From TrEMBL:
The lineage of its organism: Bacteria, Pseudomonadati, Pseudomonadota, Alphaproteobacteria, Hyphomicrobiales. Coiled coil: none annotated. GO terms for biological process: lipid metabolic process. This is Glycerophosphoryl diester phosphodiesterase. SUPFAM superfamilies: PLC-like phosphodiesterases. Residues 11-249 form the GP-PDE domain. Pfam families: GDPD. One of its GO terms (molecular function) is phosphoric diester hydrolase activity. It comes from Nitratireductor indicus C115. InterPro entries: GP_PDE_dom (IPR030395), PLC-like_Pdiesterase_TIM-brl (IPR017946).
Amino acid sequence: MIMKAKETTLTRIASHRGGTLEFGDSTPAGFAVTARMPLEEVEFDLHPTLDGKIVVHHDPTLNRTTDKVGAIVQMTWQDVRAATIDFSRGEHPLLLEELCEIYTDSPVQFRCEIKPGENGGAYCDFVPKVIAGLDACGRLMTTNFSSFLMETLDEIASHTDRPRLWLLSPPVLRQLGSNAVIELATAHSVPEIGVHIDDASAALMNKVTAAGLDFGCWAAHSASQIDKALNLGVKVFTTDRPSLAISRREKQSSEGRPA
């Protein structure tokens, strides 16, 4: 009898904010380089402007990563565009449609995090605008959505059947516990959870996957954190250092170890 070789699933790499530690936070250059990298996903975050535009930016304000200050939702697109991103090539924030244009011919899929506002709450009526914007650019069917807010994940599900990922902060994971996390994800039909890489373990992953959920990690930036994600065999991990992640995965593959 001929035995079939066991199939191995490639651990997916997601370039976090277009590779923040390599190219700056959510920069056009970082997204453009990521589009040509041998990885699977690019992660980005979205906020609305005062005049209804959708901006690719991590924080709800410009304060921390640009030379301007102010909450994006309280600023016009023209004012947001005037900001220069720190540690960039003098670059400015992007609109969602501009990001889509960068990835027109790229096989890299989107991992879209719909962010809360400065007060921690969801933006009113923002989810359907994001979905419509992605659809208009022909990118909806290659987009996975993520959020720390279950409220936002529920709203996403009411507008599209695209995959959703529940991001768990360390305090929430500790406060709820793994059993409650699995129960909540199942009750809300969320198929995947993501934890901070330092909270990830084989025991937690096995419990989550045994419940029929996918398991991933975020914030795998150092070589040791990246190796941990690869050795665990998580579905996907986000990293600020995509070039390092690619090289570590290639090294493991060349050594005959599953990545």
